Amino acid sequence: MIKVGIVGGTGYTGVELLRLLSQHPHVELVAITSRKESGMPVAEMFPSLRGRVDLAFTDPASAPLAKCDVVFFATPHGVAMAQAPELLAAGVRLIDLAADFRLKSTAEFERWYKMPHSCPEVLAEAVYGLPEVNREAIRRARVIGLPGCYPTSVQLGFLPVLDPEAARVAGGDLVELDSLIADCKSGASGAGRKAEVGTLLAEASDNFRAYSVAGHRHLPEIRQGLEAVVGKPVKLAFTPHLVPMIRGIFSTLYARITPRARELDFQALYERRFAAEPFVDVMPAGSAPETRSVRASNFVRIAVHRPPDSDLLMVLVVEDNLVKGASGQGVQVMNLMFGLPEDAGLTQVPILP
Amino acid sequence: MIKVGIVGGTGYTGVELLRLLSQHPHVELVAITSRKESGMPVAEMFPSLRGRVDLAFTDPASAPLAKCDVVFFATPHGVAMAQAPELLAAGVRLIDLAADFRLKSTAEFERWYKMPHSCPEVLAEAVYGLPEVNREAIRRARVIGLPGCYPTSVQLGFLPVLDPEAARVAGGDLVELDSLIADCKSGASGAGRKAEVGTLLAEASDNFRAYSVAGHRHLPEIRQGLEAVVGKPVKLAFTPHLVPMIRGIFSTLYARITPRARELDFQALYERRFAAEPFVDVMPAGSAPETRSVRASNFVRIAVHRPPDSDLLMVLVVEDNLVKGASGQGVQVMNLMFGLPEDAGLTQVPILP
Amino acid sequence: MIKVGIVGGTGYTGVELLRLLSQHPHVELVAITSRKESGMPVAEMFPSLRGRVDLAFTDPASAPLAKCDVVFFATPHGVAMAQAPELLAAGVRLIDLAADFRLKSTAEFERWYKMPHSCPEVLAEAVYGLPEVNREAIRRARVIGLPGCYPTSVQLGFLPVLDPEAARVAGGDLVELDSLIADCKSGASGAGRKAEVGTLLAEASDNFRAYSVAGHRHLPEIRQGLEAVVGKPVKLAFTPHLVPMIRGIFSTLYARITPRARELDFQALYERRFAAEPFVDVMPAGSAPETRSVRASNFVRIAVHRPPDSDLLMVLVVEDNLVKGASGQGVQVMNLMFGLPEDAGLTQVPILP
Amino acid sequence: MIKVGIVGGTGYTGVELLRLLSQHPHVELVAITSRKESGMPVAEMFPSLRGRVDLAFTDPASAPLAKCDVVFFATPHGVAMAQAPELLAAGVRLIDLAADFRLKSTAEFERWYKMPHSCPEVLAEAVYGLPEVNREAIRRARVIGLPGCYPTSVQLGFLPVLDPEAARVAGGDLVELDSLIADCKSGASGAGRKAEVGTLLAEASDNFRAYSVAGHRHLPEIRQGLEAVVGKPVKLAFTPHLVPMIRGIFSTLYARITPRARELDFQALYERRFAAEPFVDVMPAGSAPETRSVRASNFVRIAVHRPPDSDLLMVLVVEDNLVKGASGQGVQVMNLMFGLPEDAGLTQVPILP
Hints:
The structure is a homotetramer of 353-residue chains. In chain A, helix 1 (12-21) packs across helix 12, helix 6 packs parallel to helix 12 and helix 7 (149-162) packs parallel to helix 10. The first copy, chain A, is α/β, with parallel strands linked by helices and 353 residues long. Chain A has helices at 12-21, 42-45, 79-89, 106-113, 120-125, 131-140, 149-162, 164-170, 201-204, 218-230, 266-273, 323-337, and strands spanning 2-7, 27-33, 70-73, 93-96, 127-128, 143-145, 180-186, 209-210, 236-242, 249-256, 280-282, 300-305, 312-319. The interface between A and D is large, with 54 and 55 residues.
């Protein structure tokens, strides 16, 4: 059994980790920390866990994290990098669900997250935890920067058309790299379990809005990921919107197809690219995915379209922002790191309706 | 492996059976029928099942139901009783999620369901599938009439105060039997997956209403169940309301405490009654349960209250109407019928948020 | 034109007052205060008011409240009583939407609101602003304690059966006064526009729960109102529930009918009682009201039922908690105080769907 | 008073017309028809209209439509064109909320609506009822084809950048006309008040999906409108999505800015274009509009953005699909046709929250 600790267990990604890990056949939950709720049984805050999780929150200072095989950080940005060196020194592996180890450039990190990066040497060895791109590196990693929820869906949706090998076969880029668009829609759990007026039910339900239009923190992360794949600069417009629902991200991606690729079979391209992926489902041509088809599961479903009356490629991607967009991806990465079956603990069927 | 068939798989209880049974360690899904969708892969109608259920809907006429060990009927009222004799003759056991085998009186059935009962001899042997009341009879049953969603929550909530042994100890009834109240609230999936104006999102969301106020079909079923427990007539007002949510039933139950019982420890009474039950959770005194604490799980949670300034007992009960209120209870009953662990295939942690 | 000021305009009752008063034919909005948002144009916080309300929030200290004819307090409890003496001395009339002037007993106020009452002499002259009970006193009042949202619906629903004249005709009480039940359901705007985890969309949507089960502040207010009508003590169980919707209260009221009244025509009783009321609609026998039928309007709709198989009277009441339950009732009261048509500015048709 | 008839009053655009017209100072409602509900009081189907609309539905055959000054068709496609000649002959003016008189090409109509156009001569004189483009023609029209809900928002959002005069000043097109994108999101009332599984609350709430991805009927209408403005062909990808809310359309529009226009002040361009429009609100630079800011009102709000890291223009448009997207626009057009103030009966403040 792998000994697991969770730092910061009172938010949505924390309770989702608890849901997944408490059902995982190879995991022993050892500690879950919360400075504020220290001493409170976890199942008192989250009655859904009554009878399933017996732990109480412990203070981070006294939690036996150094005895864990792996520690998840489900904390605000900045916490993981503060604790990383000590835990690594103790032989513990780390999976950070926040942004501390996502951006390779500390300057970019500091620009978007408004705090200095205290730990560049750990950042240097950290692996970006997107299995569909970095599977082998993840297996060997000591530190994982887990992708953000939007970046997971946008990168998976654009991967096949940015693949250098596909471009080589076609004799050049398949799509114009200077006008990619990601029009993304997220449920309100993406904002976290924080007391805020903007995501109150009375504000956000029966309503639809865009937000962070002037620039969202996930933009540099997506760009970094896409550029790493294609090997040259890309320009991307990324517009997040808030949907009156709890879970789910729906990304509508647009790219202008280059003349050389207008006859290409994009459906086949996508199916080939993801044929071996356990959690990426390329739907049949003509499909319209919906977020509930992956609700509470680690699947991503993708549909590939050519809108009538245009030279555009349109890719529709659905994921559960708390599972494949966060905690489920964390478990998938942990499975890889510890040589377990990649889908261990992640075989739940989505909840519909 | 138990061979299972499902008749009528296109509704919500059908797809929920598929979700649960496709994850059940001791079940082989053999057939799922739909007259209308015959030939369509199940996962095409319900993409949440892609990669998990490979069956296609088959026409009821040609489905290999007679080779099953057990057949679930997730059909409109009247279907199960039409097919029961033939299947029973073939040695198949039946679990009906509709109302054909719930009411012991054919006259009551005909009054409330507006159709003749074609199968009184099967009805006579059918067992009402509420494990918390009828566990031993269920183990031996060939035919189960599975309780309705509301009746499950209301009966479980009233059981302890109607227990004859508790009354014997107290020297008489604990509550007045002529003025029970069940003020119940259900999510919209309770209305089924039927094209209807009243449960359209644009009608039913951001809205709250009572319905079937003049008399709901679950009233005689609840009354029959309560009277079977207490052994004498009861009077009950049952008011169903529609909540703008997908899953969940919340029952607020009121009973007037008799003078002899006003000092009784009802919390202890409830805890004792359900101590051995795997799916009934009596919450600590003072708790306020919420439907999401059981979302997509087979649990029922109960809180017992004495409202200030009154002689009333108030019991709050939450369940997922599609799980403990229907398909999950069906699986629980099947487990009992086939000598499996009672919670086999039913250990999923509720989905929160 | 009546000069109107609003103290505390950043909450839901404040913006609802702005919506109603900006369309009122006899009102001039003079000032709206907010300590925190001083200087910000109101329409910047609430874009729905762009082009309709040109005021900016002003600091309470410098707002020209003393020049108003009437000032509404849409503030937390305790603010109105602090400012009341000075404004009254300046000849301004006051309508408090909080609880400062609702409870006649300062001891009760202090028990439920956990603060001393600083202003008992103003409380003594304050009139409880429920027009259907106190219309004449309201016309002459200088200070109004406006009823809470739940108390409005519960009192209106019980009024006719507690009417002493009806009891006199029947030869005694129509219902048992020691076991009244108000099972109430409210949309999330009732919790106000405050940053809180419990009413986040991701917590409160697709969910249903009871709250304040051990005792809600509106209980003493409802009891005070009912006892004032019937002239003797009543016992009431009041259970509030949170509905995943924005606006609306649905109150399901139960009372046990006394033997003498079991043949009474309650439908006729209710119709007579409210025949002259401009904002109370007694629906035809057999109706099931829904909250959206009064959405964004000042109407209350009531349906009277005798549940089958019981000796209970059941009354269903719907209101918009922000209109008849708060700001609309405030405007209705203001109209009475200033001799305007009672429905001036309140003639909007409910929004459906 | 203008005598108004409504054909087909049982859907959402019908009841919204009733809400608006019953409050209109210059309108007398004369008849509202429904074949199916003939004889039923309108307020029985829509209790929100109790006390406000006294009419009953009448059979179309016997309704006094020929005595009306104007008749609205809130009917399925094909009904208006069948009745138009007779009513026009009687001197009645027509406003069709369906698609019969939107597309100038009968071939296009027949391709997208799968029925022959029976009335090309009336179509030839019909005016497309978008006041911001066709105000003068509307004043003189006898027959109006009212724009669809999506087309209203998309056309208003693209109008300023397609304006030939702006292109003349800039020396060429401001944006590339062959890659316009309209990523649109609509509430469920856009699907109408029809019994359908796909828009049930239990299907469509807590969910987000695209639909009609292979081609939506509003595509040719939008293209026709845009091409009429710019005077040359455009290519447009139009993707509709279903949002779990009742009312509201949010259109996220993207266009690639031509090199010549990259320094242009688009904010100023939009403000100038709509300066005189009573119902189009160009929000301040940097704004993020939300659908509730126009809920139940005839306003459209527009925000103009330049996404960072791109050469794209992004325009965000919000409207209430039942008001400016249908019935409210119908009333606005009627006001123009009859020389009334353009905002008569349309001055309601949006409902927030």
